[in-house]
Amino acid sequence: MDTVAKIFTCTQTQTLSKEIADAFGVSMGNVLFQRYSDGEFQPSFEESVRGTRVFIIGSTHPSSDNLMEMLLMLDAAKRASARHITAVLPYFGWARQDRKDKPRVPIGAKLIAKLLEAAGATRIITMDLHADQIQGFFEKPVDHLFASSIFLPYIQSLGLDNLTVASPDMGGSKRAYAYSKYLESDVVICYKQRAKANVISHMELIGEVKGRNVILVDDMVDTAGTLTKAADLMIERGALSVRAVCTHALLSGDAYERIEKSQLKELIVTDSIPPRKSSDKVRVLSCAKLFAAVMQNVHNNKSIGSNFIIQ
Question: Among all residues, which ones are annotated catalytic?
Answer without folding.
Answer: 192
